[in-house]
Structure formats: structure tokens, C-alpha cells
Amino acid sequence: MEEKIRLAVFGQKRLSREGGIEIVVKELCTRMAQNGCDITCYNRAGHHVSGAEYDKTIEYDGIRQKVVPTIEKKGARDIIGSTKKTYDN
To answer: Tens digits of per-residue pLDDT, 2-54?
Structure first.
């Protein structure tokens, strides 16, 4: 029996069509999930440019999503978010 590939993805703000890396991550993860991979995306907590809070979607097109809290300070947000995602159980 072939073992399912498990993949953790982090670094993006969230799965969306709003930015460069976010579009690439969404497309790759969606296609890998359709091919049987077990995908978990660790998304930064935050807000849209409009000020609205990001959706709290738990699963999207077979991709499990986890929201990681972070500090809302330019520069610190990326480093802290990535560190928390790295040590998630």
C-alpha cells in the first residue's frame, strides 16, 4: 500500500487570489490535494486590505487550514508567524 504524502505549507498570509505567492500556494495545494496528498496550510492571522478580518475556514478544497496568531507589527509579523508554524504539534 502506498503511503499518502503529508505536506505542511507556511509563509503565505492565507489561501487566496490576492497576491503573488498566495496564488501559487493555492494552485499548488489544490492540485496536490486532488491527487491524494494530505495538505495543511498554516495561515497568518490578519486582515484584508479593506480592514475585514480573514475568514476562519477550516478546510478548503481538501486543504486543512490552521490560523496562527501573530503580532501586528511590520517585519515581526512574518518572523513570528513562521516560527510558530514551525513548532506546531
So the answer is: 788 998 887 677 777 667 888 888 889 899 999 999 999 888 776 665 666 66
The label of the residue with cell 503565505 reads: 12
Q: Which residues contact 49 (CB under 8 A, 6 or more apart)?
A: 18
4 contacts 32 by C-beta, under 8 angstroms = no
Give the rounded distance of the alpha carbon of 46 from its chain centre: 12
Pairwise CA distance, residues 36 & 39, whole Å: 9
The rounded Cα 67 to chain-centroid distance in angstroms is: 8
Entry pTM? 0.66
DSSP, collapsed to helix, strand or coil, labels residue 27 as helix
Take residue 46 and report the three cell numbers written for it.
Answer: 490578519
Phi and psi at residue 77, to the nearest 5°: -55, -45
